[in-house]
Amino acid sequence: MMKKAIITSALPYANGEIHLGHVASTYLPADITTRFLKLNGTEAYYFCASDDFGTPILIQSEKENKTPEEYVKVWNKRDYEDFTSFGIEFDFFYRTSSPENISFVQEVFKKLQANGHIYEKEIIQFYCNVDKKFLPDRYVLGRCPYCKAEEQYSDLCEKCGRVPAEIEDPKCSLCKNPPTKEKTRHYFFKLTNFANELNQWLEADSNLQRDVKKYVQNWIKEGLVDWDITRDMNWGVPIPLDSAKGQVFYGWFDNHLAYISTALKFLNDKGLDGKNFWNAADIYHFIGKDIVYHHYLFLPAMRIGIGNEYKLPDYIPTRGHLMLQSKKISKSRNWYIGLKDFLGIYPTDYLRFYLALITPYSQDDLNFDWEEFASRINSELIGNIGNFVNRALGFTQKSMAGVVPNTTEFDQSDKEAKEKIHNFSSDLTSLMEDNSIDKALKKIIEFSAHFNQYFQKKEPWKGGVGSNNCVFISVNAVRSLAISLYPFLPESSKRIWTQIGMSGSVSEQPWSSISEIKIMEGHKIGTASPLFKKIEASDIEANKAKLGK
Predict the structure, then answer these.
(1) Which one in 59, 106, 167, 529 has a CA-CA gap of 20 to 30 Å to 273?
(2) Which pLDDT does position 127 carry in this prediction?
């Protein structure tokens, strides 16, 4: 029976452009994994949505004289276009403000309430007397009570990753004045009900990263805190109770439910049973390390709280933040690179190649460095992969009229080269399944380097005995490269496929066939031409000079 998989990424907030920091840890690894799974015979779907609710959107839409609906519609479209230009291929990109998600969130709330996991309580809420409003979390800044980091929002400490019970030394982020405290009634989710079941899930799921699992279990040991899921504002999913007029759900209550509602919308519209598919599939949630608390505690607890109606994730690949020239990315200081701007300078696959290469499967932060980017592209993408493809196909075109020649008896180096192709799938598959996409790409680079050396050693241009064997095996190695590169560099992979003169689409080839000799004697290749263009040092200096200006 065909395997199934559902892949999601943390939802982009519909309040600004996508930059390199967004795509490195979350969207690119998810896209690479989805493409691999599809090639490897899995019925896989990649879903995402724009995160449309929250006070920042409400305030920014007012500044631009738009309704919140109009404002998020603009960013939903722009984000999707930017992702698409980067080769991120969602099967469906939706929005948290969709009628399907609003209905689903309200339904989940009612089930949690019926199961005894919701209660109402009068609380003291921060209130700004200057701005005359209750202050949602993102409008209260202060000191984290756990790690003492300053200038942290009251809903999440970006330094230690915890959700503060109460921020210390609070101030309104709008006017910078200390807020007062006023009474209001809010609804709470009993996260404390789920300590045992969360621990059981963490222990049982061997696919979760050990280091992440360990500190989440420490959080549980230290004691969970019930979760305030109400906000005093009008932009969000309305709480479906007469006693909660003018109140909406906290964004983190509704946004990850959009993983499910978006999947259901797509699958049901496709004529499949969405719920059955979800529960039969491997579930992947790709995230950055700053939202571990939400995905390892809130998200599974809510699913457990409605009777495991929708299965918990099997994988939560969690990666670190992208630094830029060894400094933290900051839009306010113009220390960032917009995705759209970058792709206006260099081909999409240059960025996909570099980011995949430097992004490990860990929470370690990574660093985008302009000089290293140029060096990796020029030496490894162009000097290694591009060079091998061009010399193998270019020689076939020039010296053999583009026709793959007949072979003679293989010598030892031919046999080793052929064996390299035969082992390629098993070498790569385990790394891809383990989410080690950086190691998998390095394995592909190593494969190409081996064949560059093989081609150089055999010297087919001298026309000696065995030169036909070299061309035959090398063209087949190029085919293996084309398929193995598809998850990483889809556009370049398609161009290689065309240059080899293969029929059909590279995206439809079985992953296992990278270890097969499929191109036979007499095959006519297409037109060979260089795949990539060198990056000049002067261009890199110009790009660096734009930062911080």
Answers:
(1) 106
(2) 86
